Amino acid sequence: MLLLNRSPEQELALQTRIDQMHNQKSPLFQQWLRVDEVGACYGVADADIAAVNAWLQKHGFAIEAVLPAKMMVVFSGTAGQVEEAFHTEMHNLKVRDEKHIANMSAPQIPAALAPVIAGVHSLNDFFPKPMLHRIGVEKRDAKTGKVYLANNNVASVRKSAGKDNSNSLVTYPDNRACPGSSCEWLGPGDFYTIYNEKPLLTGNFCGGRSCDGAGQTIAVLEETDVCAGQSGSTPDDCAGANDLAMFRSQFGLPAAKVKYYFGIPHYCADPGVQGPNGSTEETEADIDLQWAGAVAPGANVDYLACASTTTTAGVDLAAIYAVNKLAYRISSFSLSYGVCEMGLAEGEYGGIFLSNKFYNNLWQQAVAEGQTVNVSAGDSGDDTCDRGAMAATSGWNVNGIASTPYDVAAGGTDFTDSYTNNFAVAPTQYWNTNDAPPYESALSYIPEVTWNESCGSTLLASYVSAQAGTPYTTEEVCNGDTFLGLDFTYVDASGGGGISSIYRLPIWQSAYGVGVVPRGACAICRMCLCLRRQIFGIMPCSSVNRIS
User: Fold this and answer.
1) What are the residues facing 262 on neighbouring strands?
2) Whether the predicted pLDDT of 431 surpasses 80
3) Which of 181, 213, 330, 502 is 20 to 30 A from residue 219's alpha carbon, by CA?
């Protein structure tokens, strides 16, 4: 996809229009644009697009489409044509034991077209990765209804996932903090209690009715199918299971109103269920789908899944479709994928892929059309580039999909109740011991803290110290100098966030205050709720790989 540049005057006009549409005192408040209006008023001129298309066709490329916002040209061709037209070399690479293809230098374009062309997305397959942190396998006893951690051993977790992944996201090789069924897993009812959502779900605050999402359509963007009653969905067979229905039934929620797009005819291919026999992304998709609907149980949910092509991620294809084809229907969508921002940047930051404008322009268009874009801030602290590695080497780097001024970067916090209650097990002032459906065990709001399950976590050091009766520092925990002998330093298992290396501080952040931000840069995360329960987590239902 060739990314286009609108003129500076158009860019200023669009930013002004977006500000007005979010100003309650403006006559343009919530007067959202249609996609064709975005193209007509703020898109690149037809004559310029024709010149770009002619240049591409001159080099042998086929023009597949010009998107209606007139900011993107979809084209196809061979690696040889890419090398000849963009003056870059395409190579096969092996990076961290993964095979990739990529351009080896920034693509070049004719000087005459430079004002119109912003970059290329993409000439490589360094695709976004799901921002999922697995902590173990949980099972439900059919006779008692109790949910318990089935096995705490990392080797067993990897085996149950269908592969021995040396870069596993399971941080705790031997999780002794959750024996048997004593974990306080976070279910939808707990969420309602902790964040006081019950009055919204039962009251009449939304035009005389409850605020449960009824009348709204939200969406999740994925690159895998989920088990929705089908069988034989390559590469994993659901055997007729319906995970969303099981989740809703288990937690006493009303039946879901969901529309599945498993591939989109004449647009993108069906990715199949990518469980343990595929990319293992199905677990992320289960969490996204089930919990989006749990927080808004009355909303319609669109599930958009596209297979990746050679150089375009399926989640990116799903995002393009949601913004350009379904803006009339979808008011809010989320994606839980991330990519190193440094790899998207240009100029002084050293990136060669020049893709950051793909996300910035697409999210900007979505906002102009009245859509709310929610993106995971990530789970690797302040270094998305080294996610899953043994050590951080790239410095501070946030999730490049979440760092634009036009999306909500959603991150996770942790509860402090175990820490403040000397790690006592339930019942406590915050939790009861209910093990029966719908598994509501939270009693009130629970104080929160930054989520940090890395070996540098002060909460983890306190827990280990309490269990051993000996004080340990975070450094000793990281080095394995404790009775647990963890000895891990994965760049993983802590809330993502930090300062963008690309975008400056937007007006709305400077107005409402985000603390001290260097160089006027944009800060993430911007919305944080508890997504972890000490070293436990939220609970999805999955028939294929049962990892949560």
Assistant:
1) 305
2) yes
3) 502
Residue 74 in any domain: the answer is yes
Average pLDDT over residues 25-31: 96
pLDDT at res. 145? 56
| 400 within a domain of the structure (yes/no) | no
In which domain, by residue range, is 92 found?
2-125
Whether residue 304 is contained in a domain is answered as no
This prediction's pTM: 0.86
Structure tokens of 273? 């269920």
Structurally, the chain folds into a number of domains equal to: 1
Does residue 121 fall inside a structural domain?
A: yes
Task: Write out pLDDT tens, residues 303-321.
Answer: 999 999 999 999 999 999 9
Q: What's the Cα-to-Cα distance from 52 to each of 10, 115, 246, 528, rounded to whole Å? A: 19, 11, 50, 42
SS3 content of the chain, % helix, strand, coil (to 5): 25, 20, 50
For the four alpha carbons of 48, 52, 53 and 54, in that order, the dihedral sign comes to positive
pLDDT (tens digit, 9 = 90+) per residue, 402-413?
Answer: 989 999 988 878
Cβ pair 417, 519 in contact under 8 A: no
Q: How far apart are CA 32 and CA 21, in angstroms?
A: 7
For 382, other C-beta atoms within 10 Å of its C-beta total: 18
Strands 2-4 and 117-120: antiparallel
